[in-house]
Amino acid sequence: MGESFLISLREGVEISLIVAILLAYLNRVGRRNAFGAVWAGVAGAAVVCVALAVAFLQVVGGFEGRAEMATEAIVSLAAAGMLTFMIFWMRRHARELKGKLQGGLERAAEHSLFAITVFAAVAVLREGIETALLLIGAERATGDTSNEFLVGGLAGLAVAAVIGWTIYHGSRRVDLRRFFTATAVLLIFFAAGMVGKAAHELRELAGASGAWADPVWQVTNPLFSTSWLSQFLGGMFGWSPEPELVRVAAYVLYLVPVVIVYFGDRVAGAFARNRAAADGPAAA
């Protein structure tokens, strides 16, 4: 449930941010009469996303045996790739988002309310489809029940809606930069767990044995092997009390480079600023 909450919270805040920007712009230019068109577009995008998710689940839910293992591996890798892309895309383009949305909405508003509806639907649709696919991938990778995933997803969207409401009303108590950084770190570890899960499924599919199938460690403490905490850590971060070597190797090979790339320039920038501050008085 924790993983579906995290994904829907992160993606939900991005959707809420888009909607808040659109509504705030319309309010600023005196077009509150177009609010309904925006909400119609959001509702239409939600219907499309739910329909696609249901259709996809109907297809993959019927697989068994080797087909099921292959599907879980492919879905886990695809979801991890989407998560990684989403994290870096938001980090790079967050500052440009407001200007692009307002520019597109201004052009749509010059035509008709229907154009505003279509623009809002398209703006939300990408995030909505991304959310649906990520939740499906997480559900296949973690093995949580549908009810648990549904509760976690709805809770995440509810919190995201509250955050979106505060953004629209101009609250400065929501530090979006810190929010996206914190959730990015959690999602990177979550994606690493999905990559490890995919490696596990591919090993079983190939029937590989030997050193790659040997457990790297074996934890027998009930707290970290059979308790709710173990299940939570497994769902959120890919924890396993008996992970085989291929799973740990895949986890590390994904996690280390992604963390280095994500934080590398920030660390280098902070180091450069500290060095410049230290050299400043000496140069003076």
Overall description:
- The protein is mostly helical and 284 residues long.
- It has one domain.
- It has 9 helices and no strands.
- α1 packs antiparallel against α2 and α2 runs parallel beside α4.
- The mean pLDDT is 82.
pLDDT averaged residue by residue: 82
Main pleated-sheet profile: none
Tally of discrete structural domains: 1
Report the β-strand fraction as a percent range: under 5%
Short description:
By secondary structure, the chain is an all-alpha fold.
Distinctive features:
83% helix; 284 residues; mainly alpha
Would you spell out the secondary-structure blueprint of this structure?
Blueprint: H1 2-28, H2 35-60, H3 65-109, H4 113-142, H5 146-168, H6 176-206, H7 222-225, H8 228-237, H9 245-283
Helix pairs in contact: 1-2, 1-3, 1-4, 1-5, 1-6, 2-4, 3-4, 3-6, 6-8, 6-9
